[in-house]
């Protein structure tokens, strides 16, 4: 696992652990529905970060006879499970709890404590999000955050970023709901805040689930990267034409590449083998994310 990804997950776990404990404590004091749903959300996020750590560690296991391409997709599986947890534990619970409080409103109390906690939690989540953004900077290369979340194979960072963004927005929703409850004296706003948080979490979980599912179904890397690999093959003096290129993401920043290449006529079979080996060394040097490379000499 990359140091940046591991650090981002660790920061998220520390932040969410502290926030979850604080939210449960203030919920017991105030009885606020928005705080309860936020506490459940933060607890689910803690479980999610543990799952990500497990997936990242399993993804580092070397290839075996049963898994010849390695275990890189273990991180994808963990990220998909995180999306399911975010949807079921976080989103659905918040939605159900909010609807219940709208139908059967209960007046929360000591809401000043809730406001103070939510402001503190916004600061902690901002700290976690800042760390995740820094870890993603080398891979983003100037791309918009949304585009990065769509195209990155570093699913652990994608999940942490998505969770942190959802958590920040959820805290803002909860803060607005608590403030409106204080100002109007109407506890229905507290339930509306929970519903808003639930819908937000479901939307984020659906986004993460769709993106990770695409990776689990052998998604190809970006068109730009495939074009760069093809151009590098074309530059080889022994290559006449690239007949076919297949590239598949097999883990976080890991590729399997298969090439069908027409080589210029070689004086012997040994010379052809050396040309293939030289091409493989060149590609591995220029594209370290290529973990498995297969070059097949062929004719049109």
UniProtKB/TrEMBL annotation:
This is Cation diffusion facilitator family transporter. GO terms for molecular function: monoatomic cation transmembrane transporter activity. It is found in: Membrane. Coiled coil: none annotated. Keywords: Membrane, Transmembrane, Transmembrane helix, Transport. Signal peptide: none annotated. It is a multi-pass membrane protein. The chain crosses the membrane at residues 74-93, 113-136, 157-183, 195-216. Pfam families: Cation_efflux (PF01545). Residues 10-217 form the Cation efflux protein transmembrane domain. It comes from the Bacteria. GO terms for biological process: zinc ion transport. It comes from Candidatus Geothrix skivensis. One of its GO terms (cellular component) is membrane.
